[in-house]
Amino acid sequence: MSYEFPENLFFDKKHHVWCLPESELLVRIGIDPLGLASLGDLAYLSLNQNGSKVSRGQPIGMLEAAKMTGELISPVDGEIVERNQHVLNDPFQVNSEPYGAGWLVVLECENWSEDSKKLVTGRKVEAWSKDELKRYRDHGWIE
Fold first, then answer.
1. E strands of 2-104, at which residues?
2. Which residues does the chain have with pLDDT short of 70?
3. What is the layout of strands, in order, in the sheet containing 105-109?
4. How much is the pLDDT for 112?
């Protein structure tokens, strides 16, 4: 399997969630392919309601996948302003198009300029993703 990590995105190093700033306030969020591979195919997905306040490190929803059940963790502080209804109806879209139609929510960020400093982006993505791929393989989480 191929694992791509576009340098224009911002990645939460611990939870394998990505962010794409759409404006100075709005950030689209999804799960990266490595995080998805370690989970297996998604069977169920729930996302907090529009208008829900979330804090970095706190849940924005829940998922059930082939290998585990757990929380989806927010990489930034903000308020959910849009949920992806398509993935709520068909969670497998997250696996099939993690950077496209498989996005999860759009947040209105409280302080993107500060929150983004805690994420990896740009030229740092390549080194981080190589280290993560090695770590996931060494632990047997992926092949």
1. 10-12, 17-21, 26-31, 42-47, 53-54, 59-65, 69-73, 78-83
2. 1
3. 10-12, 17-21, 26-31, 105-109, 78-83, 53-54
4. 94
- The residue extents of the domains of the chain are 10-111
Neighbours of 108 (CB within 10 A): 15
Q: Whole-angstrom Cα distance, residue 46 to residue 15?
A: 17
Q: How is domain 10-111 classified at the CATH fold level?
A: OB fold (Dihydrolipoamide Acetyltransferase, E2P) (2.40.50)
Place of tokens 């829940």: 62
Per-residue CA distances from 14 to 45, 50, 68 (Å): 20, 25, 17
Predicted local confidence at residue 3, as pLDDT: 86
